[in-house]
């Protein structure tokens, strides 16, 4: 099950948890209320046949998918690529990830600009809204395999912070102020 907590701004080793001591955990419901990040639990042993993922994909209009494996063996210039993933950025589309194997961290900013770290493992599917500042890193296992989902053709352009004038950012901030509503 996914865990989320407020973290310090320390980034000397991005793969460690760097949470407050004691950690200030937040529930999945509060994560959604504070950031708009949605969570689904998927059974990785049966997702190809149980219909759960298919229903989510249909309801949300996910029409394209692929897989990505992040590890030293699979990504050329691994350390540089990991640093790029860890740069604070936003996207014009949702970022949808279903973890099939391994683990990692997605960090998102709340309405007070504080980092919330989301620890994901196999079976965790998160939907990061367009316009939210976020970043990704592996944990100390240095391995994650995930499915990526898109509405239509994939758009995979990160816009590094600051990108406050982008329409998707303005729409996100508006939703943040008004409150989030689940899409499914």
Strand elements, count: 11
Secondary-structure class? alpha+beta
Low-confidence stretches: none
What's the helical proportion of residues?
Answer: 10-25%
Largest sheet properties = 9 strands, antiparallel
**H/E element sequence:** EEHEHEHEEEEEEEH
* N- to C-terminal distance: 20 Å
Radius of gyration: 16 Å
Q: What percentage of the residues does DSSP assign to strands (E)? A: 35-45%
Mean pLDDT: 93
- The best one-word shape is globular
Number of helices: 4
Describe it for me?
The chain is built from 4 helices and 11 strands. The strands form 2 sheets. Strands 1, 2, 3, 4, 6, 7, 8, 9 and 10 form a 9-stranded antiparallel sheet that branches. Strands 5-11 form a two-stranded antiparallel sheet. A hairpin with a 5-residue loop joins β6 (95-109) and β7 (115-121). It starts with a strand and ends in a 6-residue tail after the last helix. It is of the alpha+beta class. The longest helix is centred in the C-terminal third of the chain and has 12 residues, at 167-178. The model has no long low-confidence stretch (mean pLDDT 93).
Please describe the structure with a list of short key phrases separated by commas or semicolons.
single chain, about 180 residues, alpha+beta, 4 helices, about 40% strand, two-stranded antiparallel sheet
What is the compact description of this entry?
The chain has 184 residues and is an alpha+beta fold.
